[in-house]
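Reading a protein record of the kind used here takes little practice once its layout is understood. The fold follows as a row of integers, each naming the local backbone shape at the matching residue. With these conventions in mind, the following record can be read line by line:

_____
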Amino acid sequence: MKMETARAKALSIKGLNKSYRIGRGRRLPVVTDFNLSLAPGEFVTLLGPSGCGKTTVLRTLAGLEEFEEGEILLDSRSIARLPPHHRRIGLVFQNYALFPHMSVFDNVAYSLRIRRVAEAQIGTEVKTALTAVGLEDYGPRLPGQLSGGQQQRVAVARALVMNPDLLLFDEPLSNLDAKLRVQVRSELRRLQQRLGTTALFVTHDQDEAMSLSDRIAVMRAGRIEQIGPPEEIYARPATLFVAQFVGKVNALPAQVTGYEGGAASVDVLGQMLRVQAPAALRDSDVLALIRPEAVVLQQPGSGLAGRVEEVEYLGDQTEYRVRIGSALVTAVRSTLGKSWRIKEGDHLGVAFDEDAVHLLPREGNLPT
């Protein structure tokens, strides 16, 4: 059975400001001049560290938090001052928030009964929602009889049963173990794509954001630092903060020595590279952002001279910390199929894949 949803809605958040009272006449800004738009059916993730304001944005959208300024529109219709039960928004919590004494069926049916929907219709709607999440035979069970992943799917079904215009996810996978988290996030993404519902997801986990999202909005101190497709966020971060938060990165001091045809000639630790860069970086001190997988380890005598200070075996790959002069560079190699074994203390050559180097102005992007 395929669950029918309302036509996907566009979401627009404009100039949102939210603060908390922390004392007599004092307020702490949590979200500042926040602007975000989602296209109908789009899956966007708010990614950022604890305390950056991402969950506050979500709770404000759901009507669980008041705010001082701003506007929230669903398909150009303001919902900013509507009570939560009139917003047609489904919210999936981090801790599932299931009633332990009620069956799976009754948990999903709860919001429908609050709205005095006829029992015959409730039966149909709950069955459809449970089928959508693959739990059509689990209606009689109690939450305590389910695994963590199944409980999370019940929470999703409870959000879907109201046929929402917008789905909100508040770190819904954080209580699951690593393997189950991967499985459930894949199920969530397939379900959202099949239903076509507009969705906003909150997490601090970069892997979740990368695998789930059409676009990622990286937040810092109540604002969006950068928003874009996952590939853009990873390969072309707008700031050093974004680069360091989304994966590991080598941020190396470098100097642009020439510029021609949209490409800069850059000296990175003594290796000359040609890197695509804006003209504004001409003749300037820059940071060369190089992901560990773009660091090429070679036999001694080629490339830059390096010495291995640390080796960390990670299963599918091995991570190396290599000293090049005063800089410590991180590199990774696939563990399988490598006849050349690198050990701590080894001397080797290092090169950088210039197609994967991204430049930022050094001013305002000091490494942390």
